[in-house]
Every structure is written in structure tokens, then in C-alpha cells.
Design a protein that fits this description.
- This protein is mostly beta strands and 120 residues long.
- It contains no helices and twelve strands.
- The strands form three sheets. Strands 4, 5, 6, 9, 10 and 11 form a six-stranded antiparallel sheet that branches. A four-stranded antiparallel sheet has the order 1-3-8-7, with no helix packed on it. A two-stranded parallel sheet has the order 2-12.
- The mean pLDDT is 96.
Length: 120
């Protein structure tokens, strides 16, 4: 079984920084993708940043140059460093991890969500 635990959210002022973490644990054989999404009330969940299966990174245009995704493979952890935060970045952020368990089952898991309020 695989679990995700997110951490790092909290109130921040506009222009400030915050780092989110998402740790995957359990019977993991391999991880294909690790990414961050966000979803505002009444809107669809949107991609923020992701490590693709090829190891490349993709970012939403709205966060390019401000957010950086990184990972620690030894810890199966993905991070999202958010700089120059804007009030419009306020929403709930979710990590997503796709991979294979040791029993060769695939998994596609979402974190519990982390609230990031940015005050103006």
C-alpha cells in the first residue's frame, strides 16, 4: 500500500515564499510521475508543475519563473518551492504521484491537499 503525506502550507503575504512537500511511502517499486496541482472552488483542478516519466519538468505558464519543482528520489519526496507568491495563487494544492508497487500494481494517488492563502 502507498500513502502520500503533504506538508508546508500556510498563510503567506504577497511576494513571499513557501515550500510544499509531499512524501510517498509504502511498497513502492518505482515512480513514474510526481506533480503538483491546484484547485480553486468551483474550478477544475489544474496542473502547476510536474516531473514527467522521462524526468523532464513542465510548469503552468502562470507559475513559470516563480515556482520550482524538485524531488528527492531516495525519500520519494517531491517539493514545490513557491516564490513571489500572488493573491491569485491562493487555493488548495494537491500532490499527485503515479507509480508501480512491489506487487506490480499501478497506483495513482492524490495528497490530502494543502491550503495556501496569500494575503495582499
Amino acid at each position: 500500500q502507498v500513502q502520500l503525506v503533504e506538508s508546508g502550507g500556510g498563510l503567506v503575504q504577497a511576494g513571499g515564499s513557501l515550500r510544499l512537500s509531499c512524501a510517498a511511502s509504502g511498497t513502492i517499486r518505482s515512480i513514474n510521475t510526481m506533480g503538483w496541482y491546484r484547485q480553486a472552488p468551483g474550478k477544475q483542478r489544474e496542473l502547476v508543475a510536474i516531473f514527467t516519466s522521462g524526468g523532464n519538468t513542465n510548469y503552468a505558464d502562470s507559475v513559470k519563473g516563480r515556482f520550482t519543482i524538485s524531488r528527492d528520489n531516495a525519500k520519494n519526496t517531491v517539493y514545490l518551492q513557491m516564490n513571489s507568491l500572488k493573491p491569485e495563487d491562493t487555493t488548495v494544492y494537491y500532490c499527485n504521484v503515479v507509480g508501480i508497487t512491489r506487487s506490480l500494481s499501478s497506483f495513482n494517488l492524490w495528497g490530502q491537499g494543502t491550503q495556501v492563502p496569500v494575503s495582499s
